[in-house]
C-alpha cells in the first residue's frame, strides 16, 4: 500500500511493518499478540478510560507518530502498548523473543489526527482521521467477548469524526 503509506506520512503517521508483542501480562490476554492497550486521554477514549473499560486488539502493527503538531495538523495517540512490548520486525522469525532489530515499546496502536480548515475567511469543518494498526478488533469473535469496549471505541471514533460529541458514550 505505498500510496496510502505516503499519504499517511503527510498526516504525521507512518505504518510500521511489524507485529506488536506484549510481555507485560496486564497488557495482553492469553497470547502476547492479543493486546490490552493503555488508553490515552482523548474525546474518543475519555469515558472508556474513566470507567476503566478495556479493549482487546489482536495481532496489531504499530504506528510511528512522525510529529505531534505541524502545519495545523495535530496527531494524538489513543492506544499504546506497554514499555515492555516490542514491534517484531522479522515476521519470518521462529521466535517471538525480542531481537536487536525490533522496535522497543511503548508503541502506538491507534492515533487520532485533526486539522482545522478555513476558507472564505471562515472556519470550515475540521478534517478528522482515525488510524488503527488493526482491523480485527471489530471481528465478530472479538465483539462476542463480554466487557470489551471495542464497539464503544469504534462508535466513539465515528461520532468524534462527525463532530457528534454528544453521542460519545459507553
Condensed summary:
With 170 residues, this protein is of the alpha+beta class. The chain contains four helices and 13 strands.
Overall form: globular
Largest sheet at a glance?
A: 5 strands, antiparallel
On the 0 to 100 scale, the average pLDDT is 92
> What is the string of SSEs from the N terminus onward?
HEEEEEHEEEEEEEEHH
β-strand amount? 35-45%
Determine the structural class based on helices, strands and strand pairing. alpha+beta
How many strands appear in the DSSP assignment? 13
Radius of gyration, in Å, reads 17 Å
Summarize the amount of helix as a percent range. 10-25%
Q: State the end-to-end CA separation.
A: 34 Å
Question: How many DSSP helices?
Answer: 4
* Unreliable residue runs: none
3D architecture notes:
It is a single chain. The chain has 170 residues and is an alpha+beta fold. It contains four helices and 13 strands. The chain has helices at 2-10, 46-50, 140-143, 150-161; strands at 13-15, 19-22, 28-29, 31-35, 38-39, 57-58, 63-65, 69-70, 73-80, 85-88, 103-104, 108-119, 122-132. The strands form four sheets. Strands 5, 8, 9, 12 and 13 form a five-stranded antiparallel sheet that branches. It has a three-stranded antiparallel sheet with strand order 2-10-11, with no helix packed on it. It has a three-stranded antiparallel sheet with strand order 3-4-6, with no helix packed on it. The radius of gyration is 17 Å and the shape is globular.
